[in-house]
Amino acid sequence: MISLKRERRIASGMDEKLGGLLLWLLLTLLVVAVVLPLAAILGKALTDSDGRFAGLTQISHTLAQPGLLRATSGSVQVAIASTLLVVPLAYGYAAALTRVALPLRGLFRLLALLPLLAPSLLPGISLVYLFGNQGLLKTWFPDGSIYGFAGIVLGEAFYTFPHALMILLTALAVGDARLYEAARTMGAGRLRQFLTITLPATRYGVVSAALVVFTLTITDFGVAKVIGGQYPVLAVEAYKQVIGQQNFPQGAVIGLLLLLPAMLSFMLDRKLQRRQQTLVSARAQPLQMVHSWPVRLVALSFCSVVGGALLLLLGTAIAAAFIQLWPYQLQFTLTHFDFDSVDGGGWLAFGNSLKMALGTALLGTCVVFLGAWSSCKLRSIPTGGQLLHAIAMLPMAVPGLVLGLGYIFFFNSDGNPLHGLYGSLSILVLCSVAHFYTTAHMTARTALAQLDPDFEPVAASLKVPLWTTLWRVTLPACLPAVLEIARYFFVSAMTTVSAVIFLYTPDTVLAAVAVLNMDDAGDTAAAAAMATLIVASSATVCLLFALLSHWLLAQSQRWRQPNKH
Known about the structure:
By secondary structure, this protein is an all-alpha fold. The protein folds into 2 domains: 1-45 and 340-555, MetI-like fold (Orthogonal Bundle); 56-278 and 287-328, MetI-like (MetI-like fold), CATH 1.10.3720.10. Helices cover 71% and strands 1% of the residues. It has helices spanning 2-45, 57-63, 66-99, 105-113, 121-131, 146-172, 177-185, 190-201, 203-219, 222-227, 234-244, 248-275, 293-320, 346-377, 382-393, 400-411, 425-435, 437-449, 455-461, 466-477, 479-495, 511-520, 524-556, and strands spanning 323-325, 329-332. A two-stranded antiparallel ribbon has the order 1-2. Strand 1 and strand 2 form a beta hairpin. The two termini are 38 Å apart.
């Protein structure tokens, strides 16, 4: 046994050294991409406009401004209202999909997830076309009241609904049928069963969904910029200070304010996760779908209304892109796709977005998978692996707008040797990878955790190089997760606005930013056309990834298929 262990160490010694070098390189990359930009925000918040250290003076001066107080109050009010609207709707929708024998379940699930393919600017544009001064339904919001609190809440509801739904689908997917049977035996009705069994069993999912909606709303920039009118919110205030007034210290202070709710939500979610108990035992019986026709009718009606509302907002922007003049001349046209005739970036912006999304998918997938693998599998460097995992979890609590601010302050410094990246497409790729790193990292870690931990030691005892095991065993086994990570990075990079709004130049303008610029210039139809292109390209890539996944899995994972002989 001793000689076998010694042989394993000798066989894998050089591999472990190379693996350790890889781990520390990836750790350094994460520090540069995440930690140092956040530290730069804090440093900028502690300096005055001339760059001299001012301590807490700049922070106290900014916090004392009445405009900031109004923006903070407005952001909190919008976030609370959006949470109270979205979470019950998403809960009912998820319950209908998981607990009721719902007709067209796959279609309703697809409808609910469609907003993930669109930038957050799109619902604002649709609301303008529907309820704005020239909207088809402008009488529903007289005197332009859609431009403000109501419009922001409705737009954020569209933007955040699929995020809350995915959490609640997971929470409601499992349950113990024995508990419901016992409740029915004791004469409990459906309402009492819901209050005493279903709701307590899913409370962690409800709280998590509420925290996600609250954080996404309070830190989102796109919806408020398009439909917010004069209603003050923190994200737009940060944009005005940095872009409009070039007041970087005040922008940094507002960035810290935006970071607080995200950090608090993240810590609260982690605390609740540790307290979460297993609710389904090994003896649990799976729930049976409800087949009662009154319940099915109510569920079908509810999902039709909610799914129809989401489809209406998405479809309105797409339809407006092909209509001559909304709502007076409804003839079909492609004129609005002539982006070279309007300001905003044109086809260059769309091409840049495709390049940036592709680069984010390639770089992000490689870095995430290798980082997760090295933090899980290289047992000889436990400290480095734990530190990498800790930093990898940090972007989940950092809003994209805050991260973008940090990139300005860090990479735009003349004394930074990486200053050459500023203004290039590379920095947009790096920022996007850092912004969406946590979800991809957790996906990769979950896939790696499902593999037998003895793969690497056994391969080392057979003198098989660690990298051969990674390429021929680990990677093929984790291929579904790798493809999902690549798809997630691509779509997220195509639709993001807040993380890159401070970093683009006229040569690196992106499609989502072009939507904002064209809307600001009054070219709303062209903005809708560009948003439509983003949705179409994201949907096309999702379809291509699905086909690619099916083909690659059929070629590389035949070992998963049952033996017919």
